[in-house]
Specification:
620 residues; mainly beta; six-stranded mixed beta sheet; five-stranded mixed beta sheet; 7% helix; 33% strand; globular
Amino acid sequence: MKSIFKTSLIASAVLALPGVALANQELLKLQDDPNQWVHPSGNYNGNRYSKLDQINAGNVNNLRVAWQFSTGVLRGHEGGPLVLGDVMYIHTPIPNIVFALDLNDSGRIIWRYNPVVGGKYPGGQTQARVTSVMCCDNVNRGVAYAGGKIFTYIADTTLIALDAKSGNELWRATNLDSGVGNRGLSASTGTSAPIVIGSNVMVGCSGAEFGVRCNMTAYNIDSGKKVWRAYSMGPDKDILVDPKKTTHLGKPVGKNSSLNTWKGDQWQIGGGSLWGFWAWDPNANLLYYGTGNPSTWNPVVRPGDNKWSMTIMARNPETGMAKWFYQMTPHDEWDYDGINEMILADIDVKGKKRKTLVHFDRNGFAYTMDRVTGELLVAEKYDPMVNWATHIDMKTGRPALVDRYGTDHGGKGQDFVTTDICPAALGVKDQQPASFSQQTGLFYVPANHVCMNYEPFKVTYTPGDAYVGANLDMFPGPGGYMGNFTAWDAGKGKIVWQINEPFSVWSGVLTTAGGIAIYGTLEGWAKAVDAKSGKLLWKVKTPSGIIGNFNTWTHKGKQQIGVLSGVGGWAGIGVATEKNYSESNDQWGLGALGGYRSLANYTQAGGVLTVWQLDRKSVV
């Protein structure tokens, strides 16, 4: 047992040194060790790439189950495990249990932390109340580590710091309010994995479907005190911009850049959730994340661009001040949240090496940007089915809309059903993170291939109640299938190869120096393909549908790969809740029930961690 907490002891030694950036020093050092997995995305750049190559294209078909662990919780299991030394940390959906598992003893539980006591969350709300205001299943996307602490951000928006060795609670901070009360704050929920940068731990919020005005908030990692908060929309002082220095495509945003794009005080219930996976460039010292849809989903009642919803934001993580913004879908008419992961990579763009940010948006366009200046370099469809816009204007950054597939229709779209919009509201890709292979220079994208009919309707805002205002029907895209796994050249904006899947590919992708890309399907298949050609090399069925992220590490000299299976999320919510059997309305679950009704024929709910390694004869 001596080696279980060796990483924590190293961390403690590092923390004994003076200086503000100690957590950075520790995490930057740890993330360079491929034998561990210390960030939700593997590293700050969000590549989800490992330098490990013991498991490779030549032997991946010899993977065998090393051990499994049942979380004891149903519903959707998103995110993935952290591994530090000989200890693994995993999480669950509501009630948001955190486990520390001993890798030396096939996942023996070292400690278990459950934040729900007596049926109530730390913020005072009952588990039933919190569950009732979760938009799209009871998911959580993982924990973060720094300085001997595990940080978990739970469904009622409480951020908790735990002692990594004992699991004891060190401090807690309630970020917003999951109850009923304050306008624009009621029904806030937490689903994102925190990110630690320097002395701050940052968390977002969910709740745009309830009229929550969301924000990114930083807390001190030692005290839990709030350091700064930046809202997605509102006055300049709320969104932390300098009207003269903060830019949008190279030009200053100007005074009241958000307020000028909303009718009256609608910005106070404007949405703009942020719950994806985020990145940090230590050289530019910029934190990158995306904001979600404006509230409500009925675009007719909220004229204007509704800034800064649907926006990539680059901020100083110490102060929260914004350096640049880029709004991808002004005046959103389809719920194309801009929250998807930000991937930082230095790649060739038009013959020149650029420091880029690559983002695969729900709206179906893949954006390649200069991550330092916010310049738009490439913007192309990563699924040809996309029909709501023909292209992105590279000068203005705005999409060229096709009114036939809009839902506002010049202010006349309320109570009108627009048919055959591609993609559906859950996008060509949702939160499931893509990977950048430093070996091939390609991006590997887990995707949906789903279209929809969309009907906006009038809805009245009531604090704490749903504020959606749209009916949806979802169905397979052209060709009759619902998912893709795509290899993408972000410098050229081109598909290199693509694999069609019967259902959405909702897992996070892993690429490695072994020349493989690994992903999972909603039916529960774990698959490894050749990163260059896409050739299938290995597949195995897991106990439930996979919406978790594949991560890798080593233990006692053997490379291991692990993933949480447990069907759910937006696409799988019908199976996770068993509504597939009891609900006849296909529009339940914001259209997901009808679109994915047949998924119940292939998988059932259940949370299980599976860990694989090579059989003995295959280890060189």
